[in-house]
From TrEMBL:
It holds the Pfam family Esterase. InterPro entries: AB_hydrolase_fold (IPR029058), Esterase-like (IPR000801). SUPFAM superfamilies: alpha/beta-Hydrolases. This is Putative esterase. Residues 1-22 form the signal peptide. The keyword Transmembrane does not apply. It comes from the Bacteria. Keywords: Signal.
Amino acid sequence: MKTKIFFLLVFLFSASIIPAQRTDTLSFYSEAFGEQRTVYIHKPGFYKYKSGSVKLPVIFLLDGQHEWFINPILSDIKYLQYTHEIPNALVVVVPHKNRNDECGFSGLQPGMPLDIFITEELTRALTKYNPGEIRIIAGHSFSASFALYAYLMHPGFYTAVMAHTPLHELESLVEALGKTGQADKDRIFISTGGIAGDKDYHHRKKYDQLKSSYPDFFSDIVTFEADYSAHNAVPIVATPVFLTRIFERFRGRYAGIAKTDDEYKLIDIPETAEAEIDKVLEASVIGDYFYPPGIAEINGIASRYAYNGYNSQALEIYRLGITYYPDYYEFYLSLYELTYGQDSEQAREYLNRAEYLLKTVETGWDGKNALLDEIRIEKVKHGWE
């Protein structure tokens, strides 16, 4: 029988008590630029809960000095993460002090300061955030050409490049990227706006010319032609399309695990708890990289098992959850519910751990004190207080 604390927990969780994203300001001296530089690290809300085994993809956003560009792109990313279209990531916003000098080039020679800054200096500085090996670089207009240049120079470093309506040295870039055998063409994403004079005329005109001159290249890459969008609007409409394509298999990676019908009943009888865990781990990939289930995915899978009476499977899923998110109190409350009546000492440890995390990790939010009160009631009821 479920206790009062379980129902309170479900209510609070459904009210989205996972904290909002947080932004770190990271400043350090850059040898490449010969001066102090600052970037901004947008971390997902669950960041404070995770263990070192959760390595997040990194999205580098150039033109960080332009709020009109960065803010809507960040909103695109947050919404796609909220709807589970793409994974949570570290979004690294890179401002430029002199955009033209930093992103401009003549000829495709290695050694641009901005390139060194990102691939070497910034990458070292990001080590403390425990980043994964998935790296995406995105730019707009002038910085879009630099993003293509960066991918050309380091196809093994970047997983994908999103170049929104580029123009600067575009033909040189297209020709070089088309000839190289090291860069995967399907990891190159180029967008452009409308041909009308009040849309994206000059950039679209060049794009159309190159598309005609280099048909093989443009058939191999991913493009988005925003025919009704002006130059500055293109990134806003193209970014969701590109990111969804880059992570197209992410949303459905656990679709075959604990499948239910319209009444939330399991369609198939699950295998042993160990076998179900193996299925989850096998599905926990993005491309060639391991990416563990998120908090919502753990809760979703475990709740389907528990609702249908398969408590041992639910129990192991939640235990898997605390290996990846050891500071997330809610998993411990769920484990308490599942173990009480079978192993009271283990249940007591889970309840105490949840209480401790609520007091030490969580900041103030509506309902926290009520939940702590319910935990104390549970402890008194069982003689643990």
